[in-house]
Design a protein that fits this description.
Layout (H helix, E strand, L loop, with lengths): L1 E2 L10 H7 L15 H21 L6 E4 L2 H15 L6 E5 L4 H11 L4 E5 L9 H7 L4 E5 L13 H11 L2 E5 L16 E5 L10 E5 L25 H16 L1 H22 L3 E4 L9 E6 L4 H10 L2 E2 L15 H5 L4 H5 L1 E5 L6 H22 L1
Parallel strand pairs: 1-11, 3-4, 3-5, 5-6, 6-7
Antiparallel strand pairs: 2-8, 7-8, 9-10, 10-12
Helix pairs in contact: 1-7, 2-7, 3-4, 5-6, 8-12, 9-12
């Protein structure tokens, strides 16, 4: 299989698996237990938390382990809004946020909150001025993702953060697509979330950072794990794997980004030269190195993905969390693209293990699939 869907998930790094194995076998104690087996597990979690905090550039006590990016986003939005409801009941999000944040905000609307969605320009960029105009004196929470999961557009987070702080609201930045790729320092925020499986770590573990001094209510009640703010037995192997994967991703980020961008650019160049009626969605410059989102005139994106899959090539029509949905991409629609262009979009995302040979094979296969679909429709 030629795997070109790394924005959905990445394969588990072999070294990460080796780091996790002791905590899946011999060091199996519950980290909340008081005996030596529990202390050994607890020490591993502490070391993982310290490592992640160092990379993010924040105090370890502001790092919380979650079950993934979705839980991190839910906890941040619902926890902060609940704690600061005396300030107001207004939420501002970019219209291209992941459903984890948008649906969380809609949940809050059932309890008297108001939500304002800010559309991007036709390249997928959110304007800091548009965020400023959307905020009100009663705005409590603002969320803009570091880079979009569908079109890869990197947002001007530093400028947006300045506008939000001038208003006094809490700012959350979804760093799921940039963690392990771009420095966290590029995306100042009061809170961030990310998931290990996006940078060759294990599925089922994520990280939430909330700036010290910010109050937030817990989403999951029960025991006193994660300093009483996230109940449930800690996934020790997952925490260790997340830290190991993040360390390895950043150690090789410069090399990997250069390689992946070259593969992506070669693919886009090949597609544009070999296939007519193709348009690139998103910004050409402010873009993740792995991402190519393309629309194919006269085609349906789902048909293209199906045809590629039959040929052993994995791609997608957008967010993996929206698979099976019959609605159009909310990201491309918010960018103001016409319906046919939205329907015909396919996302290709490259990884460190892809090769130039795979790129060439994917271009040739895509040309055949698109040609077959267009012929059947003519």
């Amino acid at each position: 299989m030629i795997y070109l869907d790394h924005a959905a998930t990445t394969p588990l790094d072999g070294e990460v698996l080796r780091a996790m194995m002791p905590y899946l076998t011999d060091v199996f104690g519950n980290p909340s237990s008081q005996h030596s087996a529990g202390r050994a597990a607890a020490n591993a979690v502490t070391a993982a938390r310290d490592s992640i905090a160092h990379i993010v550039g924040v105090p370890a006590e502001s790092i919380y382990f979650t079950a993934g990016g979705t839980e991190a986003a839910n906890t941040a939005l619902k926890g902060v809004c609940t704690s600061y409801r005396d300030r107001g009941r207004h939420i501002v999000l970019s219209a291209i946020e992941h459903p984890a944040l948008i649906e969380s905000a809609r949940d809050m609307c059932n309890y008297g909150w108001e939500l304002t969605l800010v559309n991007p320009d036709d390249k997928g960029i959110i304007s800091p001025d548009a965020i400023k105009r959307a905020m009100r004196p009663d705005t409590v929470f603002v969320g803009v993702m570091a880079a979009n999961n569908e079109v890869g557009t990197i947002q001007p987070i530093a400028a947006i953060y300045s506008q939000v702080k001038a208003n006094g609201a809490f700012f959350f930045c979804d760093c799921v697509q940039t963690a392990g790729v771009l420095p966290f320092s590029d995306f100042p925020a009061d809170g961030i979330g990310f998931a290990a499986h996006k940078f060759y770590g294990p599925k089922g573990v994520g990280v939430l950072h909330i700036r010290r001094g910010v109050k937030f209510a817990r989403l999951i009640s029960g025991g006193n794990q994660e300093r009483g703010l996230r109940a449930g037995t800690t996934y020790v192997a997952g925490a260790v794997g997340c830290a190991c994967a993040l360390e390895r991703a950043y150690a090789a980020a410069e090399h990997n980004n250069k390689k992946v961008a070259a593969l992506r650019d070669g693919f886009v160049s090949g597609v544009l030269s070999e296939i007519s009626g193709v348009r690139l969605n998103g910004d050409n410059v402010r873009r993740l190195p792995s991402n190519a989102n393309l629309s194919f005139d006269g085609c349906d994106g789902e048909q293209i993905v199906f045809g590629l899959d039959l040929a052993g090539i994995a791609a997608s029509t957008g967010s993996a969390c929206s698979s099976g949905a019959v609605t159009l991409s909310h990201v491309l629609a918010a960018m103001g693209l016409e319906e046919d262009r939205v329907k015909s979009a396919v996302r290709f995302t490259f990884g460190r293990d892809n090769s130039e040979e795979e790129v060439s094979a994917a271009v040739n296969c895509l040309k055949e699939v698109v040609g077959r679909i267009r012929k059947s429709r003519s």
